[in-house]
Design a protein that fits this description.
Elements: E1 6-12, E2 18-19, E3 35-41, E4 70-71, H1 76-82, E5 86-87, E6 91-96, H2 102-114, E7 120-124, H3 129-139, E8 147-150, H4 154-164, E9 168-172, H5 189-206, E10 209-215, H6 227-231, E11 234-239, E12 246-254, E13 262-268, E14 271-274, H7 278-282, E15 293-300, E16 303-315, E17 323-326, H8 330-344, E18 351-357, H9 369-381, E19 389-391, E20 394-395, E21 401-402, H10 407-416, E22 421-425, H11 426-435, E23 443-447
Amino acid sequence: MAKGKNKTVFFCKECGYESAKWLGQCPGCKEWNTFVEEPVIKTAAGKEISRTAAAEPSRLSEVRVTEEVRTLTGIGELDRVLGGGIVTGSLVLVGGDPGIGKSTLLLQMCQQLVNTEKKVLYVSGEESVKQIKMRADRLGEFKKELFLLSETDLDRVVDVISRMKPDVVVIDSIQTMYREEIGSMPGSVSQIRETTSVLLHLAKSMAISVFVIGHVTKEGVVAGPRILEHMVDTVLYFEGEGSASYRFLRGVKNRFGSTNEIGVFEMRGCGLVEVTNPSEYMLQGKPENESGSVVTCSMEGTRPILIEVQALVCQTNFNMPRRTAAGTDYNRVNLLMAVIEKRLGLRMGDCDAYINVAGGLRIHEPALDLGIIAAVLSSYRNQSFDSSTICFGEVGLVGEVRAVAMAEQRVLEAAKLGFKRCLLPQGNKRQMDIAKKNLGDMELVGIDTIHELLGVF
């Protein structure tokens, strides 16, 4: 029988849609200019598909559900983001910028796991075993043995895993793995899709937890087809500025727990150190009695985090005022500036405005609105905001302050750090008054519209 011939097809980098010819717009995800050409191997003609093991549907009432078996990593912040530990047989994708600390985090996780009698295999396609050993020595003592493998051929990696039967496997990184059957370069769409499929089948069939490291593009998403994120059970992003010491581990997908949870770490010479009280950490170095500085509260999953919002408003010498937003949505800042100008009658059209969320954390929650407006007003009027006061709430286009979720947890977090007064939506205050929650010495001030903020300074 003649061997199969190589051919080329076109894949969409976003969703993995396959086409025999190049298309300007993907029919699957409707994105433009996402098709790339990849060689594939044509299988031999006349191959019959076995139908002896046909799948049978199951009745919903007959399915028995058991609680997932979880393994604690020994790193509390990582366990929080994973939803309570590693689920046996899960496939976890960890993405992040180069040098942000992805490999360090997972190597520290391996250190904790082997110290609890777990068999762990660390596979690296980017470093030799000596390089991994040098990095491991900086992290401290490994009480038990960690197995290392420097290999890029996925078939050899699968063979080692099948013989070893480890509890946890780390693949660093998915872009370096390849299969010879796929006639394309490592990191291509077809290679990443095929290797991820093999690792997924391996994790489910052998009940092995697999962690996969993925590089990100300049847009901040994992390189390769977006179908990679759909195939895995959990997607974690490791974020932070390379020049700063803080790192944030954010869960954006989790089939076994809540999403949008966040873990906070500090990078030190000995590795990553957990930050157990992010609110206190974020407020370090906050200036006292300075205009344009306001403390607000954001919910990251189930965790309230106090953050400082800074604003600098000054007269512009140009016809077009400048707007800059760091750590929050730029368009949202423009919207809130328009609300201030329209509803409060303040001239913002001839002022430059710079908004910054101190600490490097990116916040997109609407509850940040009231804090941004308070900081802008403080800087515009050059009057300081009370340092013992916190505020949060969503602001609408007519200047109303709307209620937000989990207000009680936000107030309790502020009280724990010594704040005495809280400006919050009137709707949330009424709910707390009805529930008669004991908030200690915290004074609650309900706000209906942003006009009431003018009397706070």
